[in-house]
Design a protein that fits this description.
Layout: H1 2-13, H2 17-20, H3 22-28, E1 46-52, E2 56-65, H4 69-87, E3 96-102, E4 106-115, E5 127-131, E6 135-144, H5 149-163, E7 171-175, E8 187-194
Length: about 200
């Protein structure tokens, strides 16, 4: 997915490559006539301080190259949904992607869904039970195309630089709209940036 490939350096340290490499920031902006995020709506967060609660999650670890990012994530959530349905487990919150590592070619992630408690019979294979990141974070809302997320991440980068904030080496996308059922151009995604 081109948007995430350009944003990859931001995702890891958020000391952010855009500050160190102005050419990268210039490439991240969508060319005229191409995807840009939908305007934020009243009440949408942009840099809102939040505290992420402790949550038990069922998750699927994965890795993808940037060109296949969205399709890879959708497939991961389909697998999770199938597991939850078979086990009769109801999610207690929105699906999320926890990005754990990125580089120029791809990224590692945990596709996760919050659940009330660990099941009596833990999953086997690629699916596992764990804890979502918790603690202090900043919340940003993205509306629109998944391809337009570069612009959102560039705005997040600028916000953190302006506020002299340092992010941890991970971030979370929480899907206010179901990534499996929602058209990729009409997503609403809450981006959480844990800060030090």
């Amino acid at each position: 997915m081109p948007c995430l490939r350009l944003a990859a350096p931001i995702m890891l340290s958020l000391a952010f490559a855009f500050a160190a490499d102005p050419a990268l920031a210039q490439r991240a902006a969508p060319p005229p006539g191409q995807d840009s995020p939908a305007p934020l709506q009243p009440g949408d967060a942009f840099g809102e301080e939040v505290t992420l609660p402790e949550r038990t999650i069922v998750y699927l670890k994965g890795h993808s190259n940037w060109d296949a990012a969205f399709d890879t994530l959708v497939d991961a959530f389909k697998s999770l949904n199938e597991y939850l349905d078979k086990q009769g487990i109801k999610p207690t919150g929105a699906a999320m992607t926890i990005y754990t590592q990125t580089d120029d070619t791809g990224f590692s992630f945990d596709a996760a869904v919050p659940i009330a408690a660990a099941p009596a019979n833990p999953p086997k294979g690629d699916i596992a039970i764990g804890q979502a990141p918790s603690g202090k974070a900043l919340k940003f809302v993205h509306r629109g195309s998944y391809d337009a997320m570069d612009s959102t991440y560039e705005a997040i980068t600028n916000y953190l630089e302006d506020k002299h904030l340092e992010a941890k080496d991970l971030f979370i996308e929480e899907y206010a709209t179901d990534p499996v059922k929602t058209d990729a151009d009409n997503l609403v995604i809450n981006v959480f940036v844990p800060v030090k």
